Amino acid sequence: MNADARLEIGEMDHADLKRAMGCFATGIAVVTTRHGGADLGMTCNSFNTVSLEPPLVLWSVRRAAASHDAFVHGGGYTVSILGADQEDIANRFTRGSQEERFADLPVERLPTGRLVIGGAAAWLDCSLENVVEAGDHDILIGRVLEFDSTLKDTLGYLRGRFTKLRS
């Protein structure tokens, strides 16, 4: 590594850090919850497996996000891992009101009351196990209660752009 490329922690440029992190391909999911009688959802690429025994997963939500408190206090969440053909849904859940995000969208309501996005490559319904503070985000660790998956290709994210992840 070039010494000129190294930055001290206090000198880090957020754009440069995002560019570096963008070299790591991730999947794209929509995470939903139900809180106060309302459905809420957001696009996420910070989803990951924690443990198989017990079955635990995690994702992170920015504390300044409008739906942060609903996810932290909603008791659980559902992760819909988007299919390669669902880029429009990924974009939809990054803006607009919660009502607009769900309008005319095929969904399935689970026994927990939370929603699965129709056509998703996979989904996991989780109870909230733990919330860990981490910088300007909270990490939400969930216990998988129910799930399903398909062989469908998935939507990914690499270098600031959506991409199709094929098996």
The proportion of strand residues reads over 45%
CATH architecture assignment name: Roll
Which parts are unreliable, with pLDDT below 50 for 5 consecutive residues or more?
none
> CATH-wise, what's the superfamily?
Electron Transport, Fmn-binding Protein, Chain A
Number of strands: 12
- Helix share, percent: 10-25%
CATH C-level class is Mainly Beta
Tell me the structural class. mainly beta
CATH topology: Pnp Oxidase, Chain A
Oligomer designation: single chain
- Overall 3D geometry? globular
- Main sheet summary: 7 strands, antiparallel
Q: What's the order of the H and E elements?
A: HEEEEEHEHHEEEEEE
Amino-to-carboxy terminus distance: 33 Å
The helix tally amounts to 4
Protein name: Flavin reductase family protein
Keywords: Oxidoreductase
InterPro entries: Flavin_Rdtase-like_dom (IPR002563), NADH-dep_flavin_reductase (IPR050268), Split_barrel_FMN-bd (IPR012349)
Organism: Oricola thermophila
Outline:
This protein has 167 residues and is mostly beta strands. The protein is 15% helix and 46% strand. The strands form three sheets. A seven-stranded antiparallel beta sheet has the order 3-2-6-9-10-5-4. It has a three-stranded antiparallel beta sheet with strand order 1-11-12, with no helix packed on it.
